[in-house]
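Report of the visiting student (M.T.), summer placement. My assignment was to run the structure pipeline on a short list of targets and document each run. The first record concerns Glycolate oxidase, subunit GlcD.
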Amino acid sequence: MRMPDPDDRVFRNRDALLARLRKAVPGGVIAEEDARRPYETDGLTAYRQLPLVVVLPSSTAEVAETLRICRGMGVKVVPRGAGTGLSGGALPLADGVLLGLSKLNRILDIDYDNRTVTVQPGVTNLGITHAVQHRGFYYAPDPSSQIACTIGGNVAENSGGVHCLKYGVTTNNVLGVEFVTMEGEVVRLGGKHLDPEGYDLLGVLNGSEGLLGVVTEVTVRILQKPETARAVLLGFPSVEAGGAAVAAVIAAGIIPGGMEMMDRPALNAAEDFVGAGYPRDAESLLIVELDGPAAEVDHLIERVEAIARENGAFYSRVSRSEEERAAFWSGRKNAFPAVGRIAADYMCMDGTIPRRALPQVLRRMTEMQAEFGLRVANVFHAGDGNLHPLILFDANRPGELERAEAFGAAILKLCVEVGGVLTGEHGVGVEKRDLMTVQFAEADLEQQQRLKCAFDPDGLLNPGKVFPLLHRCAELGRLHVPRGQLPFPDLPRF
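After the run finished, the structure tokens were exported:
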């Protein structure tokens, strides 16, 4: 995994850079090696790099001035939220500034009439719900890391969560943002109104992985808590049967509030960790939550149970209280740390496939375990086909990290092969960067790079991420003239 070559000029000018940054962000510049160490990686800990310097601004003005300084001195910048990302999107650069946004952590406005909350990017995902739940409201996207992950990072990666099947991912719940360009210009997109005017630049910024600008303020929609929410646990004799039940439920026109699946290794690890009451003898476990009016929920639970039985379910248990419903979800929400107890290391993949392909892909992943000599535990958002295979390995054993990477690449290629995509919510970062050519043709990637060039013509924002080969912006669109001979010289040129 190669990153852009460091610029010796930046190292030579480090003292001058530090002096300017310390003046712009008093008390917010970290230059000592030991103090920079906690920022050397994000949630993808297989890759590490000590940043040149860490800057922790406390305001939009300090973000803007930091970016102006870096652009003027030709210094790369890597934005970072809470560091919970799993694709290496916040991996620092040896010659770059790591711009941490954790101090921008205030809730700026709560507007119940318009059902919006405006926050700074360092506010945690769960922090929004905590701020409004006393009035019966909540923020719908709920990644498993919601207790720690921040809204700025959610926007960067277009994060999802267990309840996004019905209520959408981050982009469906963000109404407006304030962001700072690499030139230090502060720009606002959208607001509290429902539909933005003109081009959907807000949609472009969601999921842009810090390549286009640094988000400093976000306005999100909040929802009223449903009248009733109940969950049902469904156990199946095989992962294929569980996958078939998922497709059958959606095909029946039922859109659950959440629909998650775990295979036997994952559900047993979760059960050992939190004691959620999962059936240990099931090869796959489906958690389906229905919400809405009580009569509707009761009716839909009966329909879901019937569909599950038709697809081989031998276990069914419906939550009888809010505490029991929360317990069902606690196992799923804690599946990642639970799996961490049964393996020295694991690599969490993230690909999305059509629901109809679930049985096929799950069966193929089982076969791949023997091919690569590694185990996999499956935890995923079944309703929208967003897979999260956890590849178990031991980095201290020679060759196992490389085999885990190869296993992960094979899974992602399989996702594309069956009509899916490389990522659902974790982003591309460095993890999937070199696989982008599997999904996109060269012309597609060049068009995406032109969009980046419109925002960041010098390529200073988070370089080395997403694109397998980042052309210089001046190169894109130029005509190649081999041996000085223009192709079709008789054609008029304008």
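The mean pLDDT is 94. The two ends are 42 Å apart (CA to CA). I thank the supervising group for their guidance throughout the placement.
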